[in-house]
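Attaching the record inline, Q. Sequence:
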Amino acid sequence: MSCEAVPDAFLDARLAGALDAEIHWRGPALGCDGTRRPDGQGLRVSFTGSQAGERLTLVFGVPHLAEGADGRAIPVNVTLIREGRDLYGTQGEGKCLLDEVRQSALAGAPPDPPPAGVAGPADAPAPAPRLWRIDARGFCLEPARSIGDGRDAILLATFDFRGQLTWEQDPPEQTPLVPPPAAKGR
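Structure, as predicted:
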């Protein structure tokens, strides 16, 4: 989970509540990753680092942002993991926003998909993943609550980050094989 595709990656954040901290993660001490969300809708970017001897991971899930898209006032879900301790989540939209988000292609433009109904050779290699740099800044209006009891909370008052996204090629739509019609008796 290194940030090798974006050597100037960073995360700056202000946390308040069960964890009061100013985070300024950069360089080799910062781990970052970004991918399409598991449900295929939007993207997810994560950052890992240390704060006062504690290992933390912040995950930003953006369900309404497509590959390569820029935007303003985009809802974002935030998860904060205190390694070996607690898990916190905003659990829903409308609690945090990306003021502004920009994506820039790192490895060239995404390839054009094949025309509809045209399949490539069965042994053709899968297209390489597409790499993007993502720059965003935002804030939360409500805290991420401890998953489970919900008593502890951490407000991610502001955040600013630069990271990387790896978009895998969309899986090809498979046309079901249809058996040939049964031969009629002669």
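The chain is about 0% helix and 50% strand. The CA atoms of residues 2 and 170 lie 24 Å apart.

More tomorrow.
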